[in-house]
């Protein structure tokens, strides 16, 4: 499979922590752009906080988007690759997971949030937004399971992952990953 449009989401430990106005994250994301410390070419910030179960606040980039995502009533940090990337599928998955971990770690350590946001280390979601090359089928799950598990081990050494396919064939391929053996987020 030649997959590039991959995303990873880490969930906020306490959903009530996100009760802060979405607008509070806009200056944080702008500062991330201005600091020049993000990979790729970050371009702008968009506020979709008014959309119920939507993308929340997005940091739009050329290669990838980052967001404080509110989808499915489960807030979290999403890194979504949208352009071609080098490497094997496993390496691309590891890069996306690593970027999601790094973004979540940055928010946890963001001085403006005063430690109010922390992320779960026991689960994450991996999605492939390419229904042609990765339909949401058992065959896709079988083809990608080993690479997803290996990529998680690459990014989170010592982690053990259990995978479960979500949704149906009308939605993008999504895997819920239960992780054990990781106590806290480390720098990617």
- By oligomeric state, this entry counts as single chain
- What would you report as the Rg, rounded to the nearest angstrom? 16 Å
Mean pLDDT: 89
Q: Helicity level, as a percent range? A: 25-40%
Q: Strand order, biggest sheet?
A: 2-3-4-5-1-6-8-7
Tell me the series of helices and strands, N- to C-terminal: EHEEEEHEHEE
**Sheet with the most strands, sense and barrel status:** 8 strands, antiparallel
Number of H- or I-type helical stretches? 3
Q: What is the SS-derived class?
A: alpha+beta
Portion in strands = 25-35%
How many domains, as an integer? 1
- The count of β-strands is 8
Question: So what's the overall shape?
Answer: globular
Give a summary of the structure in a few sentences.
The chain has 188 residues and is of the alpha+beta class. It has helices at 25-35, 89-108, 138-155; strands at 6-12, 42-48, 56-61, 64-69, 76-81, 119-128, 160-166, 173-180. An 8-stranded antiparallel sheet has the order 2-3-4-5-1-6-8-7, covered by helices on one side.
């Amino acid at each position: 499979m030649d997959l590039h449009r991959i995303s990873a989401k880490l969930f906020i430990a306490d959903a009530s922590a996100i009760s802060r106005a979405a607008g509070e994250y806009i200056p944080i994301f702008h500062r991330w752009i201005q600091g020049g410390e993000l990979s790729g070419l970050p371009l702008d910030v968009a506020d979709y906080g008014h959309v119920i179960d939507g993308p929340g606040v997005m940091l739009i980039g050329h290669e990838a988007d980052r967001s404080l995502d509110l989808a499915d009533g489960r807030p979290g940090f999403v890194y979504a690759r949208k352009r071609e990337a080098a490497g094997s599928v496993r390496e691309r998955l590891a890069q996306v997971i690593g970027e999601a971990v790094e973004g979540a770690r940055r928010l946890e350590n963001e001085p403006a949030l005063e430690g109010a946001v922390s992320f779960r280390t026991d689960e994450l979601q991996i999605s492939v937004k390419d229904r042609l090359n990765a339909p949401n089928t058992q065959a896709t799950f079988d083809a990608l399971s080993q690479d997803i598990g290996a990529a998680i081990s690459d990014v989170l050494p010592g982690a053990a992952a259990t995978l479960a396919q979500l949704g149906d064939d009308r939605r993008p391929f999504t895997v819920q990953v239960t992780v054990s053996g990781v106590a806290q987020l480390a720098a990617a």
